[in-house]
Amino acid sequence: MIVLELMSDGKIVKLPEGMEVLGLPAHLSVLVALFLPFNRVLIGSSVNSMDSWTWGKLGTREWKEVFLYDDIPLVLKEQNISDITLNEEAVAKLKAVLFEQIPPPGNHISTVLVLRGISRGFDIPGDHHEWGDEQSFLSRISANERLSKAYWGIRKALFERNPEMLERIKTWYTYASDVFQDPFNYPRMWFSLATLPGEDELADIESLGFTRDNLKNMNAKFSNPIVISNALGYLILLIEYSGNDYNELRVWMYINMNLWEELRRKRKLSIKEVVSAGWGFLDASDAEIIMTRYGNHQGHIAGIKT
Fold first, then answer.
1. Whole-prediction pTM
2. Quick one: how far is CA 65 from the chain centroid?
3. pLDDT digit string, tens, across residues 123-165
4. In 186-277, where do the E strands start and end?
């Protein structure tokens, strides 16, 4: 267990190793304990490889579950004491301390088998006798950006039992793994359940030279997907249906002229495959960021000094 303390200036410091903390809930396997004012403690544990947070008063049954979100301060409220606030930096460091002690969720062997199925033989370093060594395998692929993204995307999709995400990542890796190299060439995506995206998303789309009337006209068409273009790039609307009542999810994607030329003209992808490849790339990129937070303890705890 890593024991920390919240200082008056909002920073978190690490307390000496081996420190015993009495009065914690007996039913929780505590990995992180953060001392707070008023004899309160915020504790972190792992449930199914996910982070779980509880706070309360030592030696009592007054414990409540709370949720820590990236980039959002945490405010702990309780009667008879002042609010306790953890700023964004403190929340990020606290989550990092916990994640570094948890193995990545998902199954390594299942991930490698799927990755092998969509890869050419030389894509995966080593041979099949070495692939079972998870740490060695991860070390070898870490320098290969495309392979690392694909691995973590597949692992996350399998763990979450998300076949749609898995198929998107397969499409990206099979047909376009070498396309989205330059951040300026990344596809941009927005989602909406209504006919138009929200105001923030609309502002993004308008900044690319498309108007609200353009989007309304796209919605008025009967074909699916719909594509319009301007001098800079292409805006695609793909409507996906799910559930027995055919709920509609509108997927809006923008790609620049160069990406369109590469994917459509040269690689002959259908418009749906273009959306799937771009979406799969973004899925894999997000998954890599999320999954590589796990199990990275290397003798220091998230940059927190004693």
1. 0.84
2. 22
3. 776 666 677 888 888 888 888 899 999 999 999 999 999 999 9
4. 188-192, 226-229, 233-242, 247-256
